[in-house]
Input
Amino acid sequence: MRNLSRSNGVFALAAGGCELVVKGPALLDPDAEGRLDRERRFYALAAREPDVAREAPIPALVAQLGDVLVLGRLRPGETLEERARERGVSPADAALLGSALGAWRRVSGRLAGLELPGRLPWVLEALGPAPPGAVARSAGAARLADVLRREPVLADGLARLRAGWRRDAVVHGDVRWDNALLDADGRTGCERVVLVDWEFLDVGDAGWDVAGALADVIALAAAPAAPPGPAGYRPAPAGELVRLSRAVAEPVEAFRSAYRAGAPADVAEADLEAGVRLLPARLLQIAFLHAAWGLTEGLASALQLAGVAGAMLEEAGGRARGAGRSA
Output
């Protein structure tokens, strides 16, 4: 048995000559059994839709046993995150993910009949007076929430994002470079990306998937070689935002161009704008995961990412106030 994920309970298991993947509750998971049931129902419906199955490979075996999902393992393949950690984030890889997400946006409407709860991502409510179970059940995440709850910029920024949340698309819900599997296009032989791990599938804001793709680019660029010990929260200085913007400019533009080419023309630009707006929340979600991994080094990188998210929210709030005065 081999652990496949730091953030989810996912294990590879060899049994009787078969390779299986066993999935249990995620590290920060407000609804384990319902989430896995959604993934099981998604595979059943997607198997009847060839265009959907092309963007979301269907395991040969899908069985749910209580709060555990057993899947036939897809053929091994490198993820975009594995390649990025080895070679750095490249515009070509960002474009592969943009194409995959754009194609998903184009076919996702075929799953409109799948009953989905339409929940807000838990991170949008993580700094409220009653934190979601995903935060309360983890000592590291709860500690981070206690620190960040004192920052009005973060709480106000998340409130604005909740107010602007759309429910106009079927979304993957957990787009990460680690959930982007490299594959060969069966028709052309060219390299492409397929999306895996569909347990957070839901009706929501298409910008959330875009934000997930962009957040990993930012997080990889922001991560220091050796995080300092946690010294409390502080927003990233303006110079750091400028540095990050320059560091990720080429892969971000490659992603955006590929998404525009793959997604329906009438929604692509609005999705990309929503993705930029939701990006700070997605960075905060990554921060909570880092905090849940460890109370020392994990909290240090969590506070750093939260500082980047806070600076972005503060900048967005300033633009909103300026627009209000102009109106």
Observations:
- The beta strands are 2-3, 8-15, 18-26, 62-65, 68-72, 169-171, 180-184, 191-195, 202-204.
- The first helix runs from residue 32 to 46.
- The mean pLDDT is 87.
- The two ends are 60 Å apart (CA to CA).
